[in-house]
Every structure is written in structure tokens, then in C-alpha cells.
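In response to a reviewer's request, we include the raw inputs and outputs for one of the modeled complexes. The six entities were modeled together in a single run.
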Amino acid sequence: MADGEPRWRRRKTARPGEILEAALAVFADKGFAAARLSDIAAKAGVSKAALYVYFETKTDLFRAVANQVAAPNIERLRPLVDGEPGRFAEMMPVILSGIAKVAEDMPLGGIAKMVIGESRNFPEIASVWREAVIERALSMIVQLVEQAQKKGEVRAGDPRLYGLSLLGPMIMGVLWTEVAVPAGGAPIDLHKLAAQHAGVLMDGMLVEARR
Amino acid sequence: MADGEPRWRRRKTARPGEILEAALAVFADKGFAAARLSDIAAKAGVSKAALYVYFETKTDLFRAVANQVAAPNIERLRPLVDGEPGRFAEMMPVILSGIAKVAEDMPLGGIAKMVIGESRNFPEIASVWREAVIERALSMIVQLVEQAQKKGEVRAGDPRLYGLSLLGPMIMGVLWTEVAVPAGGAPIDLHKLAAQHAGVLMDGMLVEARR
Amino acid sequence: MADGEPRWRRRKTARPGEILEAALAVFADKGFAAARLSDIAAKAGVSKAALYVYFETKTDLFRAVANQVAAPNIERLRPLVDGEPGRFAEMMPVILSGIAKVAEDMPLGGIAKMVIGESRNFPEIASVWREAVIERALSMIVQLVEQAQKKGEVRAGDPRLYGLSLLGPMIMGVLWTEVAVPAGGAPIDLHKLAAQHAGVLMDGMLVEARR
Amino acid sequence: MADGEPRWRRRKTARPGEILEAALAVFADKGFAAARLSDIAAKAGVSKAALYVYFETKTDLFRAVANQVAAPNIERLRPLVDGEPGRFAEMMPVILSGIAKVAEDMPLGGIAKMVIGESRNFPEIASVWREAVIERALSMIVQLVEQAQKKGEVRAGDPRLYGLSLLGPMIMGVLWTEVAVPAGGAPIDLHKLAAQHAGVLMDGMLVEARR
DNA sequence: CATGAATGAGACTTCATTCAT
DNA sequence: GATGAATGAAGTCTCATTCAT
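The model returned the following C-alpha cells for the whole complex.
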């Protein structure tokens, strides 16, 4: 023991990332107030005191998590609308299934739950998320809709509300998966939802009877 | 002090209701963990100890709020689908604007936020809400869709997913109003959303160009 | 209901007695601090508030119980030594089996436990019991011993310490029954103890061999 | 404040012991329910929260005190009967004065009071003490008596009851010192009691007159 | 007299945060 | 940088006590 080899050496620089990861998991699971720093520390494999080396307060850590995790979300969204915008009818399924795919890769539901649940207690975080993620996604869609309307592809109507028609079911699907399924609800296949919903957006639910 | 105001006057049966009301407001605002019994007591105009006359623990009170508040929700839903189910195309706008109306009358957004935020910490409450409210609403819609499909009014497709297409935007609208608007987002007119979304559901967003 | 016969009428005067009885049971069982007024009230079949009709505070009630219950104890002791004091050797078994008999008729163990346990918190009660019961009993015995010593029946020695030799095992027996038996100890027959201990007091334990 | 005294200094391994010591004092004095954690903390020179670093609950702390303090008691008893058991008549005074000595070194009275007072509220503790201390002491004596009876030194009779005859006065003496003396009773010299009681046990109280 | 309803004071307990090492 | 030990502040809950009826 005395002059032996240390059993392992810490990956110094990795620490903050590991902590953020652990914190995201716990915050997303429990919410801000119910999350215990001791749980986060344990999950990150460090002492409670170590958290304070990197983050000044619990609130700070929460902010960091929320913001840190917002960035990659935005990046994921960009490719969905970048480049030559094709015909609207062709874009929609791509966008919707893109969202379904993103939801597979990151704990989108947990994050949404966290942001929704703490929106009053941390207005700034709700702000950040609204501005950095939701609003950006929405505005991309609004843009697409407006362009499509100009080209005569999409009917007249408030583009923003069209955005909700478009996104709403996907978000509900994500929340359902996060909230209702653990409570005994039947699981939903987000990709099928994306596909069918794209159909609704294009042709409506009705068979013939217009008007 | 002598022959002054009595320190408190009994309002017997009213008390528990007043407490539940206050508790709903605070829980919906802050979430379970961040809600302080002193806030609830103050808002209800009683002492902290009085809460314990009617509810055994904070958890109990939360449960009572969540359950108590579930019942009227169900009642509100019933008229939306009762009676002769007319043509699907005529029902949809009614249902959607019905939801918009309900959202005006009760703090639907706050409740949703509360239930979503505490779903992991109180799985039973998520269960109750899923079963008593969401699932019930969804199944009413699923039923309508199935009937309409039989009559040839609605295209083939998973009725449950159609339900999400139908409800999703309204729920997103409600959450937007609760979460994003206080964080600086532009308000949404739920009735306009209902109307326009009904159009989407009927005819789709596209002008002519099918596929 | 309006002008009917009341279903039962309360035995007004009995109330305080019933309360004291209930209080004795609970105090003896739990001790002062751990005893809940609600338990006492329930056991007495009255409301908590009713206790305050007869006793000003919990402390008051405790005092009343301790004192009220001290009196009959003293009365029970009197016959044990009253009248012509016979020969000491004949008195001892009578006294000891008298104690055993008293222990059968009243919750002597519970009371002892109560007084012992609360002696620091209620010095006055320890005082009352010491003076009114223990000291009195002891002094009666001391007196007997002194008389017997004068008559040459009993050896020289501190009469007070003789008193402890005499009483100690009976008290230990009572405490054993109250404390150790519920905790799994083998029960003791107090009458047999009284008889055998009387033998010890008279002849000692040894066979012949006087050192 | 700058370069002043550190607010607290760690004494690592010492802490739990110091806390137990303080807790013993307070519990023995007040009983479980009436003991305040703040008193214990103050007496131990730590914050209330520090108690929770070492003990999960007040109950836990109480248990630890009762058990921790039982062990040394047992050790103290062992030498009293170990080794060649001499003649019974010679052992008795040794045992009794041994008890008197133990009572000088540790707060035997306080502990007894505590255990007796909380026996109903903490049956397990009464069990531990009965089994680990009382029963053990008693059985040692019972053994001695039985051996002595075989050798013809001690009269026939229930050895267990002889045990009570032997121990009872010492225990009463200890309780007297703890309970009655602070309430105004005349102090007792436990060593004198031991000596005189040993005489009683050997020869009885009577001068000549047998029977 | 009796009580259901209400409360103030205070207890135990938790937890984010800090300090000496 | 990292941590075990410690704590202050605050929260939930209990309970003796009071008040209007």
C-alpha cells in the first residue's frame, strides 16, 4: 500500500461531464426540489462536496444541466430543415420521423418533464428552453409553412397554429411515453405516430367528404 | 382583546374544500416538493396545524388534491360526446372547442404540469389521471373514430394514434399557455387553435397537391 | 328526535374518577411524556376537551393521579402493622404476604414504574410517594424492628437497612413482574417469594455452618 | 473571523462516544420522550444535525445507548463470580459489596431508571437488559446457590427466589439513591447495606429464637 | 357540562452547504 | 482537487391547550 501504484487515476477533465450526466438523470427523474445532491453525487461516483468544486449551488447545477442539454437538442434539429427546402408534403414526414428519432437518442421526455415541472420555480430555464429549443424548432416550421403557403402548397391559416398542429401530437407522444407508460398506459410507437400523423396533416382524416 | 373579534370562526364543512383549493393552487404552481405547507395554510386562511385536522400528511393532501380534482374533469368531458353522435366532421370542431372552453374554466394547465412533474414521485397519481381523465377522454375519441371509420367517414388507420393527432395540439396549447407564456412566449388563442386544427384534421394542410 | 327521551344520561359525578382511572392506566403504561391526552380521553370515553373541565393541565392530571392513587395505598398498609404487634418472627411473613396481596389488587408495578421513571421530571411526585407511601411503610417496619430489637428478638443493626433487606426483594419481585416478564422473563410467584424470603429473614440461608 | 478559531475541530473517532455519553446522561435523567435532542447535542458539544451523522433517529440513539452501556456492565459482573467458587458464606459479602462498588463507578441507578421507565415503550431494550445483565447476574447467583445447596451449605428452596432475596435489597438501595434521595430521602450507604444484608442472608435477623 | 374544531409552540428530521484536512 | 465531518436553516408533523357553540 505504502509506495504501491495507485489503483486508478482520475480522469480529471471528465468530472464535470460525468456530474452533469448524473444530474440530468436525477433532475429529469425527480424534478429540482425532490432531487438530492447526494443521489447525484452517488450516481456520478463522487462525494457531495466534489459537486461544489464545479458548481456553486444546486441551482447552478440545475441551470448548467438544463442549458448544457439544450445545445445538442438544437443541433439535432438543424439538419431537419437545412438545405434546399423540398416540397412541403415531402418535408413533413421527414421532420416528424426526425423528431421520433431524436426522442430515441436522448431522454427527451425526461427533459420535457423537468422543464415543464420546474417552469414556475425557474422561469429562466423555461425561457432558455423556449427560446433555444421550442421557439427555434417552431420558427423553422413556421418558416417552412410560410414558404409553402407562398408557393401555394399549404392552405391559408396562422402558420404558428399549424406548427402546433404539427408538433403537438409528437410532443404528446413523447410525454405519454415518459409519463403515462410507466403508470400503466399502453406504449406508443412514435415512428408509427409520426407516419400516420403526417398523413393527417397532408390529407386530413376524412375520406372524401370535404366541407 | 376583551370582547374583540373571535380569533377564528368555524365554517365547518367549508374548510376541507378551501384547503384543497389552496393546495391545488400551490401544488400546481410549485410542484409537490417545492410546495410549502405554510403557503397552503396561509392561502387557505388557516394554521398549518389545521391542515392536519383534515389530512394526515402532505402526501395525503397532495393525493386528495389530485384525485378530488380529477372527478370534475371527467364530468366536463362527458357532454362533449354524449347524445347522438353526429357526423364526425361535425363533432371534431365541437370537441376541440369544448376542450378550449374547459381550459378556460379550470386550471387545466397547472394540473397537467403538476401531474406531469410528479409522475415519477407519485406513480399512483399519474395512474389515476391516466385512467380517470386522459384514458377516458382518449377512449371516447377512439370510439368516435372507430364508428366513423365503420361508416366510411374516416380513413383507415390506428384510432388511438388518430386520437393523439386530435388531442395533441390542444394539450400542447394548454401547456404552452402554462409554461411558455409566463416565460415570455407569445400567447395562443386556444379557440383559434381549435378551429384551425379542426380544419387540418378534416382536410389536411395541403391545398390540392396530393402526394 | 326533537322532544324524545335522551338515550342515556351521564353519571355526572363519576366523570373525574373515570378520567383518573384511565389516566393512571396510560401514565403507568407509557410514562408522563409519552402519554397522550387523546389516549386518556379515549380510554375514559370523553373528549380531550373534557379533561380540561376537571384538570387544568396535563401536569395537573398527572399529579392528581399520583396523589389520588397514593392514598388508598397507605390505607392498605395500615392493617399490616396495626393492632398488638406480636412477635417479630410472626409478623414478618404476614407483612410480606400482605405486600404480595396488595400487588394483586392494584397495579403496584405500573405505579412504581411511573414514579421511578418520572422522578426527575416531577420531583414533587417522587417526594409525595416517598413520604406518603415508601417512607411510611419503611418507618412502620423500622418501628417494628426497633421494638423487636429492644425485646431482644432481633439482632443489633441499622433498622433502616433491615427494612431494605425486608422490602427490597418484594419490590424487586413487583418490578420484575412489571418490567421483565413482559420482556420475556419467567414469571415470579410473589406469594412464594414472600414465604421463602420470610424464611431467609428469620434463619438466613445457611444450614448450620455459622462461620 | 479571519484567522480566528476554527468553528469546530474534528475529533473523528471520539465523536460517537461523546454523543453516547451525553445521550446516556440525558436519557437516564429525563427518560426517552422527555429527552430533547437539543439537550443531548448541547451536552455533547455538537449541533443537533451532527447526531444524525452517527445515528439515524432518536430511537436509534436510545437503542445504541442502552445496548452500548449494557456491555461494560456485563464485564463488571464477571469477576464477581469467576474463579474458584469458595464457600457460599464467604462469597456473599464479596458479591454484595461488589455490586455496591459497581454502583459507585457507573450511573447504575440512572440506567435502571431509564430501562424501567421505558420498558413498555421499548420492549426490546427491556429484553436486552433482562437477558444481558439481570438474567446473567441472576443466573450466576442461582448457580452459586445450587452448588452450595449440593454441598449442603445452603438450605433447600427455590434458588431463583434466593437470588431475589440476595439482589433485591441492593437494587432497592440503588433505586433509593437515584429516586428517593433527590426527593428528600435520607441517603443510604450501599456498602453498609451490603455488609448488613450479607449478615441477614447468612444468619437471618433473629437472635436465637428459631421458629 | 361537553365537544369538535382550531392553533401555537416546539419537536424531530432533512439537506444544501462549508470547513479543515 | 477531493472529501469526510459538521452544521444552519428550514420543513413536516405532533400535541397540549383554547375557543365558540
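As requested, we also summarize the result in words. Residues 10, 12, 15, 46-50, 53 of chain C lie near DNA strand E (CB under 10 Å from a C1'). Chain C has two domains: 12-60, 64-205.
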